[in-house]
C-alpha cells in the first residue's frame, strides 16, 4: 500500500476515532519504513501519537518508544505527551508506578482531564473499585458533560450489581444526549435488571418510539430493524413478567405509573417480533432462529 | 453659477496614485499590524483550579437538566431528585469555589480592584485599548498634515449640506457639491469599510477592526472586565434556583403516555377522536 493511501486511511481513522490497532500499526510502520513521515508537515505529530497508541495496544513497545521519543523531543512539557508517556508506563510497569506518575502530574495541574481519567481507569483495573468510584464521581462533579465518564460509572456500578446507582448514572447520560436511543435502551435494560419493571417497559417503548421510522402510515406493516427489535424483546419480557406477577406492576422504585393495556402491548410485541424474523433479505430465506423466536413468543 | 448644474471637476490622476491608494494601503497594513500586536500582547488565559472549574460549570448542570424538562427522558422521581439536589446545593453554596459560606462571611471576591485575577483582566483590556487608539491618532495626524487642502474623491451617493463641514474641512468652496470630499473622509470611509477585508484575511475575531473602538469607549472595557471575571456566583446560583423551580413546573416525562401512544401508532388502539 502506497504511503499516500496509508496516510489517508490513518487520517480517516483519526477523524472517526477508530481504534483498529493492528491495521494502524501495520500501515503506520510501513509509512515509517518508507520515510513518509518526513513530508507530512504538522500532521506527523498526530500520526505519531496514533501509531504510539496502536503499538502499545498491539504489544510492540519498541515502536511506541520511538514515537514517544520523537514527540517528547518536539514538545517537551506538553500535557498530551505526558499522558501518552503514562499510558506507555501502564503497559510495562506495575500499576502502582503508573498511579504514582499520574498523581505527580495531577498535583502539578489538577485540571488535566486526560491524566485524571487515566488514573481512574488504572484504579479500576487494579480492582480498587471504591476508590475508582469516588474519584470518578469527583471527576464527574467537576466535568459534568463527559458522557464517556458517566457511562463508565454506570458500567462500574453494574459490575458490582448496584443497578439503582447505575440507573442514576445513566440518567445523566440521557440528559446529556437525549436523542440517542442506545443510551435509552441501556437504561431500560438496567431498569429491568434492577427490578423496576414499569419504568423499564416505558423506556423500551421510548426506544421503539424513537427508532421505528418516519412513515407513520405504514408502521403496522413495516419490519422492525436493528435496535427496535431489541426494544420489542424488552417490551415482551416486561409484559410477560408483569402479567405473571402482578405485584411488580405497582412496585416501582422510581414511581413510574403502571402501564395500561398490558395485554395489548404483549400482543403487539409478539406480532412485531414475528414480523422481524419473518423476512430476511432474500425471498424464501428463513431468518436464523425464527423457529426458536416464534415458540418463545408464543409460550405463555 | 446655478447650483443645480452638476459641477464636474476633473481631478489630477496623480491624486489617485499618490493619495488614494497609499492611504488605503497604509490603513490595511496598520490594521494587520495591530492585529498581530494584540495577539502577541495577549497573555495566556489563567489556569483555573479544580474548584474554580467546578464552580464555573455548575450552572451548566442545571441548564442541561432544564433544557429538556418539558419532554424529559428521565422519569419524574429521578428528575425531582436531581432538581432538588441541585437546588439545595445552590442554596448552601456547595459549588462555590471557596466552599459554602459560613455565617457572616462577606462575599469578598466581588470587589474588582482587590481581586488579582480581575486586575489582570482589566489591565489586559486597557493594553489592547491603547494599542487600538495610538495608530488611529497617528494616521489621522499624518493625513491631516500631508493630505490637506484638496479634493480627493467624489462620493457615489448624495449627502446633505450638513456633512460639508466635516468632509470638506480644508476646502473653502461653499458652492461645491458635498459629494466632493477631502482625504480625511476617505480615511473615515476606509476605517469602517476595511472591516470586511480584515474578516477575509484575519478571520472573524480579529483585532484590526477600528469601527468597534468607535462604538466602545475606554470605560466599557472596565465594565466588561467587571462582568467577565468576578461573576458573582452566589447571585447566579440564586437565580438558577428560581429557574429550576420554573422548570420543575414545566416538567413532563417523555415516556409517560407512551404505552397508549405506541398502541395507537400501530393500530392496536383506535385513535382519539378529539
UniProtKB/TrEMBL annotation, chain A:
Q: Where are the transmembrane segments?
A: none
Where does each TPR repeat begin and end?
Answer: 147-180
Q: Extract the coiled-coil ranges from the record.
A: none
Q: Does the keyword Repeat apply?
A: yes
Cite the InterPro entries for this sequence.
EMC2-like, TPR-like_helical_dom_sf, TPR_EMC2, TPR_rpt
**Chief location of this protein?**
endoplasmic reticulum
Q: Which GO terms describe its cellular component?
A: EMC complex
Q: Which UniProt keywords apply?
A: Endoplasmic reticulum, Membrane, Repeat, TPR repeat
PROSITE patterns, alphabetically? TPR
Which residues belong to the signal peptide in this entry? none
KW tRNA-binding (keyword) present: no
Q: How does it sit in the membrane?
A: Peripheral membrane protein
What subcellular locations does the record give? Endoplasmic reticulum membrane
Q: Where is the EMC2 TPR-like domain?
A: 90-191
Biological role stated in the UniProt entry: Part of the endoplasmic reticulum membrane protein complex (EMC) that enables the energy-independent insertion into endoplasmic reticulum membranes of newly synthesized membrane proteins.
**What is its quaternary makeup?**
Component of the ER membrane protein complex (EMC).
Family statement: Belongs to the EMC2 family.
> What name does UniProt use for this protein?
ER membrane protein complex subunit 2
Name its species.
Answer: Pisolithus microcarpus 441
Automatic annotation (TrEMBL), chain B:
InterPro entries with a match to the protein in the record: EMC3, EMC3/TMCO1
The Gene Ontology CC terms held by the record are: EMC complex
Q: How does it sit in the membrane?
A: Multi-pass membrane protein
Q: Where is the signal peptide?
A: none
What keywords are assigned to this protein? Membrane, Transmembrane, Transmembrane helix
- On whether Transmembrane helix is a keyword of this UniProt record, the answer is yes
GO terms in the biological process aspect are: protein folding in endoplasmic reticulum
- Pfam families, A to Z: EMC3_TMCO1
Where would you find the membrane-spanning parts of this chain? 20-41, 130-153, 184-202
Q: Tell me if Cell membrane is a UniProt keyword of this record.
A: no
> Which cellular compartments is it found in?
Membrane
Give a short account of what the protein does: The EMC seems to be required for efficient folding of proteins in the endoplasmic reticulum (ER).
Tell me the protein family, please: Belongs to the EMC3 family.
User: Know the name of this protein?
Assistant: ER membrane protein complex subunit 3
Amino acid at each position: 500500500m502506497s504511503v499516500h493511501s496509508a496516510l489517508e486511511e490513518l487520517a480517516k481513522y483519526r477523524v472517526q476515532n477508530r481504534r483498529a490497532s493492528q491495521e494502524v500499526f501495520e500501515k503506520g510502520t510501513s509509512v515509517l519504513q518508507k520515510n513518509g513521515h518526513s513530508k507530512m508537515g504538522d500532521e506527523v505529530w498526530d500520526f505519531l501519537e496514533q501509531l504510539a497508541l496502536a503499538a502499545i495496544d498491539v504489544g510492540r513497545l519498541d515502536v511506541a518508544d520511538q514515537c514517544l521519543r520523537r514527540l517528547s523531543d518536539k514538545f517537551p512539557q506538553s500535557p498530551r505527551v505526558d499522558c501518552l508517556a503514562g499510558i506507555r508506563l501502564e503497559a510495562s510497569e506495575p500499576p502502582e508506578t503508573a498511579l504514582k506518575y499520574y498523581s505527580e502530574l495531577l498535583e502539578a495541574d489538577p485540571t488535566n482531564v486526560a491524566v485524571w481519567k487515566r488514573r481512574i481507569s488504572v484504579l479500576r483495573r487494579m480492582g480498587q473499585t471504591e476508590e475508582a468510584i469516588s474519584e470518578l464521581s469527583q471527576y464527574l462533579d467537576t466535568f459534568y458533560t463527559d458522557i464517556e465518564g458517566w457511562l463508565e460509572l454506570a458500567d462500574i456500578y453494574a459490575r458490582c450489581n448496584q443497578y439503582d446507582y447505575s440507573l442514576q448514572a445513566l440518567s445523566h447520560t440521557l440528559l446529556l444526549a437525549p436523542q440517542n436511543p442506545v443510551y435509552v435502551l441501556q437504561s431500560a435494560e438496567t431498569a429491568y435488571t434492577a427490578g423496576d419493571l414499569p419504568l423499564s417497559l416505558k423506556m423500551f417503548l421510548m426506544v421503539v418510539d424513537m427508532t421505528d421510522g418516519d412513515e407513520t402510515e405504514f408502521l403496522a406493516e413495516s419490519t422492525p430493524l436493528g435496535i427496535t427489535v431489541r426494544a420489542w424483546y424488552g417490551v415482551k419480557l416486561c409484559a410477560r413478567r408483569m402479567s405473571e406477577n402482578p405485584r411488580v406492576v405497582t412496585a416501582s422504585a422510581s414511581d413510574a405509573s403502571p402501564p395500561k393495556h398490558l395485554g395489548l402491548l404483549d400482543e403487539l410485541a409478539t406480532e412485531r417480533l414475528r414480523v422481524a424474523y419473518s423476512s430476511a433479505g432474500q425471498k424464501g430465506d428463513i431468518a436464523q432462529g425464527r423457529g426458536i423466536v416464534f415458540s418463545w413468543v408464543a409460550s405463555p | 453659477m446655478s447650483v443645480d448644474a452638476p459641477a464636474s471637476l476633473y481631478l489630477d490622476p496623480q491624486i489617485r496614485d499618490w493619495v488614494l491608494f497609499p492611504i488605503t494601503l497604509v490603513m490595511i497594513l496598520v490594521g494587520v499590524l495591530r492585529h498581530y500586536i494584540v495577539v502577541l500582547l495577549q497573555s495566556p488565559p489563567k489556569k483555573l483550579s479544580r474548584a474554580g472549574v467546578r464552580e464555573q460549570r455548575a450552572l451548566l448542570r442545571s441548564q442541561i437538566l432544564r433544557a429538556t424538562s418539558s419532554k424529559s427522558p428521565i422519569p419524574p422521581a429521578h428528575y425531582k431528585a436531581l432538581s432538588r439536589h441541585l437546588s439545595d446545593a445552590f442554596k448552601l453554596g456547595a459549588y462555590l469555589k471557596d466552599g459554602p459560606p459560613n455565617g457572616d462571611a462577606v462575599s469578598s471576591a466581588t470587589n474588582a480592584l482587590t481581586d488579582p485575577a480581575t486586575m489582570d483582566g482589566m489591565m489586559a483590556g486597557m493594553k489592547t485599548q491603547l494599542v487600538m487608539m495610538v495608530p488611529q491618532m497617528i494616521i489621522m495626524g499624518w493625513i491631516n498634515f500631508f493630505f490637506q487642502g484638496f479634493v480627493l474623491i467624489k462620493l457615489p451617493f448624495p449627502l446633505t449640506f450638513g456633512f460639508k463641514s466635516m468632509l470638506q474641512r480644508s476646502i473653502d468652496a461653499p458652492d461645491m457639491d458635498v459629494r466632493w470630499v477631502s482625504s480625511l473622509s476617505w480615511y473615515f470611509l476606509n476605517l469602517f469599510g476595511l472591516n470586511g477585508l480584515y474578516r477575509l484575511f484575519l478571520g472573524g475575531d480579529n483585532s484590526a477592526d477600528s469601527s468597534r473602538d468607535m462604538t466602545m469607549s475606554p470605560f466599557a472595557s472596565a465594565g466588561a472586565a467587571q462582568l467577565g471575571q468576578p461573576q458573582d456566583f452566589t447571585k447566579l446560583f440564586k437565580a438558577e434556583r428560581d429557574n429550576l423551580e420554573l422548570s420543575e413546573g414545566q416538567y413532563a416525562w417523555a415516556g409517560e403516555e407512551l404505552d397508549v401512544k405506541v398502541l395507537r401508532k400501530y393500530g392496536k388502539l383506535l385513535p382519539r377522536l378529539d
